[in-house]
Amino acid sequence: MSVFSYYLREKNGEPMCYHLVNKCHYYKWYYFAGKVRDVDGERVNYKQKHFKTYEAAAIAEEQYLADWEEIKHGRIDFNDLWKKYLSYSKRKKEQTTIEDDTAKYLNHIEPYFGSRWVKTVSPEEIINWHETLESNLARGSVRNCHKVLSKLFNFYELLYGVTWNPCRAVGTPKKIHDDSKFVLWTTKEFTQFYNCIHSLDDQCLFLLFFYGGLRRGEALALRWNRIQGNILCIRRSIAKIEGGTKEKSTKNSVIRHVEYPEFVINKLMRLKELRMHDDTFSEDDFIFRNKRTGKKPLSPTTITNRKDKYCEQAGLKQIDFHEFRHSHISNLLAENMPVKAVADRVGDTVDTILETYVHLMPSSNPLIVGVLNKDKDLYL
């Protein structure tokens, strides 16, 4: 049960309070909250949380109130807002997410908006920015940059109790399905690729990709104790960060159980038998480990290099790791597997599957007409 205690003090005649929240005797953080008046004189609530100490919360609130008069009249630029957003994100988001967002901000947002006051950016300028980006970037990259800028505007709204997000008014650029850039492998092409692999470790790894639709980080994070019969529990992921790798939760923190065909599980069991000859073997070991260190997972760069080598040896067009996943999903949909079942298997939503793969799904017209034709004898 949560226990709340608070300390009240006067700040310019306004009562301010800091709450200490204790949960289950091991989790605690501080937050500050209160009310200020906006440019129209209306009282606006504000709140920030997840501070480690009372002093950190107090200092942050002092800075917030000092900034308020500037913010109220729109006098904060994107670079200042970005610094505040980074500080906030470090308490809330994965390091990999922060690094990705930072790269997009520095390369594609800061050069265009960095010194601009946030409140002065119009929807028209967002559209012009999209057009500028599309002269150099693919549509998917433009969409991702738009999402980062929209996060900034959302943070501005959260932080200062105002309503101003021109990105929301413009909307995220629509996806473009370009089949020429959508590399999909048939079973025949994957077999050609697989026949060039002579390492049992790599054979198992790429079978998991093609027959399970795993993301690269999910496969690298697998441990032996995650195998139950012919089912693999996918609950963690390995991400590449500056200076190395990091184990984290899966995308959207979704835990799923993926059932594999018997021939894939048999390959994994052969690999496990070989590993068990090592006196240091543990069920908690990574399945795909760094042979030099023994206990660490393979790095994403290592398996990317191996994949490229096998593609070249097989005489096949280079395929991105995520396109193993695309191939798995499209092959299932081509066999008329239910979209909900496919979405659950790969850890996506039905909406995502339909948006991304609907143009690859076989036509249902013959099935529909077949059902309707059952009534043909009623109208002779």
Number of helices: 15
Structural class: alpha+beta
Helix fraction? 40-55%
Strand content: 15-25%
What is the succession of H and E elements? EEEEHHHHHHHHHEEEEEHHHHHH
Order of strands across the biggest sheet?
Answer: 1-2-3-4
Characterize the overall form.
globular
The major β-sheet equals: 4 strands, antiparallel
Q: Report how far apart the termini are.
A: 72 Å
Total strands:
9
Question: How is the topology of this model organized?
Answer:
Elements: E1 3-11, E2 14-23, E3 27-37, E4 43-51, H1 54-72, H2 78-92, H3 95-113, H4 123-134, H5 139-160, H6 166-170, H7 187-194, H8 200-212, H9 216-220, E5 227-228, E6 231-234, E7 236-241, E8 244-249, E9 256-259, H10 262-275, H11 300-314, H12 321-334, H13 339-346, H14 350-357, H15 365-372
Antiparallel strand pairs: 1-2, 2-3, 3-4, 5-6, 6-9, 7-8
Please characterize this protein's 3D structure.
This protein has 380 residues and is an alpha+beta fold. It contains 15 helices and 9 strands. The protein has helices spanning 54-72, 78-92, 95-113, 123-134, 139-160, 166-170, 187-194, 200-212, 216-220, 262-275, 300-314, 321-334, 339-346, 350-357, 365-372; strands at residues 3-11, 14-23, 27-37, 43-51, 227-228, 231-234, 236-241, 244-249, 256-259. The strands form 3 sheets. It has a 4-stranded antiparallel β-sheet with strand order 1-2-3-4. Helix 13 packs across helix 14 (350-357). The longest helix has 22 residues, at 139-160. The radius of gyration is 26 Å and the shape is globular. It starts with a strand and ends in an 8-residue tail after the last helix. Residues 1-27 have low confidence and may be disordered.
